[in-house]
């Protein structure tokens, strides 16, 4: 089978979408399928590709990927770091991918997969699938378009320059309707959570399959023994530092609870703002740039618990951050400031402790309890069992390949 993938995020970049598709592409190729990937010049999480310390491949030329796939790099727009800048970047790359794909009539793919983020991808993929007369699977990794209204996307993008009524209409009605129309044009949808899949099924959509975010449980050794009584609690956050994570609430809670230390390792729109805030509150919060390899492992060796945090937004109750399964696979206790399905997974798997987003008092009490009880951050094999049953990389690839076979019939 010839599989074409449209994605805005692909290795050698670092991040959840990149890890997901690295694993899936590798599995597809190992099963004997041909995979072609259209992606912009690697630049995430930076604003320019030059800031990513990797070899820059040629644009508009197919090259060999690391896993036996073919990769076509298309142009990107250096981002201003703002939401409009990101959308412009994603739109240009989506259009470029579409232009490249419609030239593939002579070696036509058998199926096209698009994945969000970025938001314009399903629109570009829908046009290409129609032009090439091939089935299209639209993967929706987050709870889009629900997040358009929940995150006040229009008001944030335009800086309040649009009248409130018009912005609300765009966020709650017009833009979701357009996005839903793109999803309805697909032959099948993929969601990463059961709760969001159920929401999509209630909206007159094509068939929805759940393929969860995954992590390899065999990649990480057992953790060290329990903390000593009286030692401070070490919390580690690795990932995007933006409004969606609401790390400001965690920073303020840590500042209020003595004996708790927080490290934030990552990048994002609020990194500098959050670092400046923390510096005025406490010296127990440290910030580090995004990293990998031995440097990242040293942070995890330091940590007693891994933080997974989302803002108090309704659509996030149908979201399971990919970092949750990553922390569980590392056999690290999870401190989850989450609700809905993510909170349910932590409780069901006995993977950690949960505080409801937006409840500052509950979070302070949780941090105090974790600090005072060294045994509270110990985890057994139950989170690994949950991952093997629900989030195995091989099982995810098998589900995807079964879906690809169905849409071709």
From TrEMBL:
InterPro entries xrefs: Glyco_trans_4-like_N, Glycosyltransferase_grp1
Keyword presence, Electron transport: no
Domain of life: Bacteria
SUPFAM superfamilies recorded: UDP-Glycosyltransferase/glycogen phosphorylase
Keywords for this protein: Glycosyltransferase, Transferase
Ribonucleoprotein listed as a keyword: no
Domain Glycosyltransferase subfamily 4-like N-terminal, chain residue ranges per copy: 15-213
GO BP of this protein: carbohydrate derivative biosynthetic process
One function term, GO molecular function aspect: hexosyltransferase activity
Cross-referenced PANTHER family: SULFOQUINOVOSYL TRANSFERASE SQD2
Protein name: D-inositol 3-phosphate glycosyltransferase
